[in-house]
Each structure stands twice: as structure tokens, then as C-alpha cells.
Amino acid sequence: MSTEISSLDNLPVIIGGGAAGLMTALQMAPEPVVLLSKASLGAEASSLWAQGGLAAAMGEDDAPALHLADTLAAGAGLCDEAVASRIVHAAPAAVEHLARLGVAFDRRPDGGWRLGLEAAHSRNRIVHATGDGTGREIMRALIAAVRRCPSITLLEGVEARSLIVEDNAIKGVVAVNAQGPRAINTGRVVIATGGIGGLFLESTNPAGCFGQGLALAARAGAKLSDLEFIQFHPTAFDGPSRPMPLVTEAVRGDGAILIDDTGQRFMADQPGAELAPRDIVARAVWRRRAEGHRVFLDARQRPGAEFAKRYPVISAFCKMAGIDPATDPIPVRPAVHYHMGGIAVDTEGRSTVTGLWACGEASRTGLHGANRLASNSLMEAIVCAQWVAESVRAASGDPLKARAADAPPPASDPSAVKPILSQGLGVLRERHGIERAIRGLYPLANGRSAASDPALVGLMIAVAAWRREESRGGHFRSDFPDALPSAAPSSITLAKALDAARDLFETESLPVGSAQP
């Protein structure tokens, strides 16, 4: 790694080039900060692909209290109400801040906000940019702002491989680029690496998002929370492309309906119909497919001829597949979309390791609970970045001594993990399948191969799912189909996950299901 990085010691380091990382870096200004991005900015960020937009109470008929009520209802009893309230009340100001940074949000002819409707929202409160290109437009503006900000040192093509920790406190980052490894000495690190979709065969996330930040935090000793809650988007485009293109929920908000290959509208009698919470819709689509049917999103009547104008990104990839949404139903299926769990943080983004913060999808703030309300994720990343930045600025400490980098772990490859997690931790789960996943992941997580970090994250997810013997939000157990009377967040550390997995792995010769959690 180039020697110029030596001048960056003792500066805060932000790991991740998506919306959460970029906004945190901008909010740190004018304090100098280092931003590490494994790829070119935005190239592997889920934020870039976000179609839905940001949820914020911007309409005259709306209020943060209504937004909060919808968020709590979707979260199925696991939201932290105080945290959720603080975030949704800050959302309108965050939208205004993005507009000042140059994000071209969609407006009505009179200049007011053009607000869309998505599942489980009681009001039109989704702020869009360029129709279904909201993430791309936000990332364009944030990347431009970061590149012109003199206090941000941007290091693209640099990957954080491990954190240096002493006495439960961060002391540095071991990073790698084409020139090799180097230790960046710092007592302040922000993880903003996004989600875990790349751990599964079918996901709407970029392939490079497979929980690297969670692995960094877990190996550093941080507590992780609610890992079992994974949101499957019900309408990923059912074609050969991987990652899978997303057909945003806003299309259903515009009146599109779900049908099977016989033409039956199978969600019609469900509360909320196609705009029921995502977990309910995803399970309905999953079951229909399990019965041997294909499933389609029918937008021929609504939005009909307006489809290409309103959703140019979706229209383009449909056209490449020979489909015109104005005249043809769009084939869809569930796919991993968002992780409600993550690194356990407080209201300022602080983890249980001193000097380690998390922001965005890699964090678990308590906003989403068991099931994220549509379009609350980009909003959470933008809002919380300000609070994380304020906390990091206030935590500046004594300079750290220089040190050489230890040999870094190998670059991660989730290929061996994908089929294991996809089979055992899908839309519908049951004990035997989860146990098989744990047994398959445990030896990989205990090794030192390219699969080790992805397997470690997958193992922690599987153990959390194994322990939660109920169905709630994004976690559905067919052997425990009901929710327990009381809800509590889960938490897990690497040591506890390995202990639980070892006990189960060592019973492999016994009948599956004989081990007790």
C-alpha cells in the first residue's frame, strides 16, 4: 500500500462507499476523515440500486406520528419506539438536506413533493427521484459532494480485512489494495458496508454485499442483534440475471396486481392485498410457486401505458427480456433484499466495542424491528449519518503508536456459503433445515479460507434463527408458525455462536433435531 497512507494515521476511518458511508463522511466535515471503498464509489452499493425512495412525512395530510405508527406496526413488536420516533421525526429535514446537496427529487407542477405509496404506509410519503432511479440520483449527488470535499481522503480499491482491537477498544484497521496490506492506526472506525444479500443465491443486492462489515465487527468482539430477520422482497424479476433486478413496490402502489399463470389474483382477499407487509406478500408468492405456479406482476391496467415513463429502469430491463409491462405481465419471485439485523448500536451509532460505530444496513438501530417498513432504509442511513458523525467527532482521543500490519485474512468469497444459506434460511424455515445449515457452515467458519468470513456471518444468522422458536416479521418458522405473546430482540456474539454451533456439530452422528438450543 502506498506510503502516503502513513499521513492518515489517527484520523477517523469510514469503511463503505454507499449512502451511509458517504453521508457520514460529509457530516464529519470539516474534520479530516478517511473513506475506504473496496470498489469504485457506488459500484457495489445497494444504495445505487434503490428504486423505492425515502419515506418521510412530507405531505399535508401526513405527520411523523403517523409514519411512526406505520413503522411500529410493520416491525411486529421489535422496534425500539424511542429510536424509531427520533429517526422518523428527523426524516423530513434529511430530505431537505439531500435536496440542498443537489438531489433532484420528483416534484409536482406546482413545485410540491411528488409522493408515492408503498406497502403498509397509511399515507403517500415516499419521496422519489427520476421515478424508479432514486438510489442512483442520491448516490450521484453524494459522490459528487464527497469528491469535492477537501476534508475527505477517499481511498478506492482499498478493502478493510480486519480490525485491530486491544482491551475491547479499536486501535486500527488492516487494509489491503493492489500494493499489499497496511495498518491504518486509528481509534475511530465506522462500519457502513451494507447488507448480506450476496450470501444467498437469489438476491436483489450487489454481489459484493455479503456481510463483510458484520464479520469485521464480530471478529472484533462486537455484539450483533436480530440477525435472523431478513426481508425477502416479493417482486424480484424472475429471470436469469444474478443479482436479480428489482420491481419496486411502488409499482404495486400504482395499482399493479399479483397473478399466477392461470390469471388468478391470489392476494385479493388478504388484508391490504398486494400492499400487505412485505413478509406476508413474499410468503404468499413463495407458496404459490411451491404449488407449481409461476407468479406475475400485472401492470397492464395500472399504470398501463404510463409504465415506461414512470419506471424507466424497470422498463429497460424488462425490454431486454422481451417484456413490455404495458402489455405483458412481469414474472416475479421473492429474493433476499434487506437485513433488519446487524451490529447492535445505540442512538449515536456506537457498538459494544469502544471506538467502533456502524451506520446504515450494517447496523441494527431498532428502527426496523422484525420487518422493515418500505423505504425506511435509505432514510435511516441519511438521518443516522449525522448522529454517528457527531459522536465520532466528540470521541477524538490520544494519538496511537504506529504498528506494522499483521498478515491479513484472505479476500472473501461467499460461493460455498450461498447454497447452504439459501436452502436453510429461506422465506420459510424449519428446525431441521436450519440445523443442516449450521452443520455445513461451522467447519467453514472455523477455517482460514476465502469462505471463512462469509460462513461466519451465515453461521451467526443461522444460530439466531435456530434459537427464535416463533414466527415474526421476516423470520417464519413452519414448525413454530405463531408469534410468541411477548417479543424481545435477539443478540449474539461470535463466541456464543461458535459455542452453540459446536454443540450441534458434534451431535452430527445423532438424529437431526436431537440437539437442544
From TrEMBL:
Pathway: Cofactor biosynthesis; NAD(+) biosynthesis; iminoaspartate from L-aspartate (oxidase route): step 1/1. GO terms for molecular function: L-aspartate oxidase activity. It is found in: Cytoplasm. Signal peptide: none annotated. It catalyses: L-aspartate + O2 = iminosuccinate + H2O2. InterPro entries: FAD-dep_OxRdtase_2_FAD-bd, FAD/NAD-bd_sf, Fum_R/Succ_DH_flav-like_C_sf, Fum_Rdtase/Succ_DH_flav-like_C, NadB, Succ_DH/fumarate_Rdtase_cat_sf. One of its GO terms (biological process) is 'de novo' NAD+ biosynthetic process from L-aspartate. Coiled coil: none annotated. Catalyzes the oxidation of L-aspartate to iminoaspartate. NCBIfam families: nadB, PRK07512.1. Belongs to the FAD-dependent oxidoreductase 2 family. NadB subfamily. This is L-aspartate oxidase. It comes from Bradyrhizobium lablabi. The lineage of its organism: Bacteria, Pseudomonadati, Pseudomonadota, Alphaproteobacteria, Hyphomicrobiales.
